[in-house]
Amino acid sequence: MADSQVEVIEGCRLPVLRKNQENEDEWPLAEILSVKETAGRKLYYVHYIDFNKRLDEWVTPDRLDMKKLQFPKKEAKTPTKNGLPGSRPGSPEREMQNSKQVVLQDTSLLDIERKNLDQSLQTATAPSRGKTVPTPKRKADPVSLAMQVSPATPVSTLSASVEVSQASIYPVAREPSTFTPKAPRDDHEPLTTVTTNGTARRLMPSQPGRKRKANCVGTDEIIKVFQYNSPRCASVYLPPGEDSQDSSDGIPSAPRMTGSLVSDRSHDDIVTRMKNIDCIELGRHRLKPWYFSPYPQELTALPILYLCEFCLKYLKSLKCLQRHLTKCNLRHPPGNEIYRKGTISFFEIDGRKNKTYSQNLCLLAKCFLDHKTLYYDTDPFLFYVMTEYDSKGFHIVGYFSKEKESTEDYNVACILTLPPYQRRGYGKLLIEFSYELSKVEGKTGTPEKPLSDLGLLSYRSYWSQTILEILMDLKSDNGERPQITINEISEITSVKKEDVISTLQYLNLINYYKGQYILTLSEDIVDGHERAMQKRHLRIDPKCLHFTPKDWSKRGKW
To answer: Where is this region: Disordered (predicted)?
Structure first.
């Protein structure tokens, strides 16, 4: 379908033929990322727009629809700010112009809003990263049910547009503010928020005479649990507290710069956007990598990259692997075996004591984790590798890493189940094991953000099943409805309070009824939970865990 007279270059967009999940032909729009010529034939590396990057592939010219070819637009390149692509340098003049253009959407209040913006610009100084900037107070329109839209949907009202302009004035706000839906209140209290460093901050003080606070659930507040009963009241949207981070939000406002695999969008260039390894042979499995991984350049041209499944050393040929296996004495990951039940074992590996293995593990994991960038400093991390045992040894199934000292209560930095073992319950087993370690440590934990799409699905499923399991086991006293607090759920499960609240919101269980919060467990919720638990055969047995937490604040432990 490709026309030889028209040259397809990098950056072009056009429909490309591919097979969907039903093995049917479809023509999604794709972008050409790279062009190469092999054996006198051109190949094109394409990224399907609005599809996950793991579906990117090399395609032949006959799969291109040249009739709808779109050439890239020539735009003047602008310098980047803070190392993030697509952001302009902070120019007060440009930002002021943008601000006024936004405010012009409503000419009736133009003078008032322009005066507020001019005053804020005169008093504002360039803030440092992470500091809170004073924001001018103003009145906002009452929030009605008709205005409740998703955060990703822009609202064409003056209040929303002014929030965007204020976010562009102050450099501390990484991205433009978006409208945040709030729960309907009896008094329709006016609210306005601006997103600063991923945290929704209130610009208006609390109104006097309010009877209750409906924007978050008090973690110590008693919540009644109703089963098989639907209350006669509307559901109330209850976001987490202002100082918390919604665990269901997969993208933080700024990249974390710590971690064995940390998020850093400044490295998302044309090289890292393309898969560089065609195939990996690991034991009895051959894996097709999903994403780029920084293996040595000379190995990327090989049709197959061979890994020792016990020490994860990478080799360029089968002959080299066979020679290595005669000298490799490992039949399990290095480190201490801290859990064994049946054929499942967990090994704890210190990133400082076993640096080579840890780095090789990160290289392998990067093939299947897109939202992370690999760094070779594994000293501050512990790696927990799950294995499956047979007569030949302990074969790696998946792993998760965690910081030895986390100031943000992270109990997981990276987590991965290798593709041959996915959709078999191992992902939830890894998550459950991470929380069992948190229980032994006497802490609550949460995974490091951002989560991948598959990671977010796994965590939501685990949180939902764990919390519902507790709620359904509650027994009533004196014939009354059972009661529980958010803090109690968090202490029982070691799941952070913000994750508990976001899960209850996700399941739409929290309601406000006759002056108190209630959790409503409908028959559909209960039946769905029971069916899911019947399929979940793999569980962690705390009795088989032999783990003693260390105080990593003492440097001698390192």
So the answer is: 69-101, 118-144, 240-264
**Bridging pattern class, strands 18-19 and 25-26:** antiparallel
- 415 contacts 455 by C-beta, under 8 angstroms: yes
CATH 3.40.630.30 in the chain, residue ranges: 329-542
Mean pLDDT of 91-109: 40
pLDDT tens per residue across span 423-464: 999 999 999 999 999 999 999 999 998 888 888 999 999 999
Q: Which residues contact 354 (CB under 8 A, 6 or more apart)?
A: 334, 335
CA dist list (Å): 537 to 173, 256, 388, 411, 473: 46, 36, 15, 24, 19
Question: For 157-203, how does the pLDDT look when each residue is reduced to its tens digit (9 = 90+)?
Answer: 333 333 333 333 333 333 443 444 444 444 433 333 333 334 444 44
Q: What are the φ and ψ backbone dihedral angles of 138, each rounded to 5 degrees?
A: -160, 165
Q: In the CATH hierarchy, which top-level class contains the domain 329-542?
A: alpha beta
Got the DSSP string for 184-233? --SS-----EEEETTEEEE-SPPPTT-----SS--TTSEEEEEES---SS
N- to C-terminal Cα separation, the chain? 61
CA distance 446 to 171: 29
Contacts of 299 (CB under 8 A, 6+ apart): 277, 305, 314, 316
Which amino acid is it at 494?
S
**Which one of 95, 309, 403, 448 is the catalytic residue?**
448
Domain 14-68: CATH class, spelled out: mainly beta
Bridge partners for 41 per DSSP: 38
Claim: this prediction has a pTM higher than 0.85? no
448 an active-site residue? yes
Q: Which residue has the higher pLDDT, 3 or 220?
A: 220
What tokens appear for 157 in the block?
A: 């009202």
Greatest C-alpha distance within the chain: 83
Where do you find CATH 2.30.30.140 in the chain?
14-68
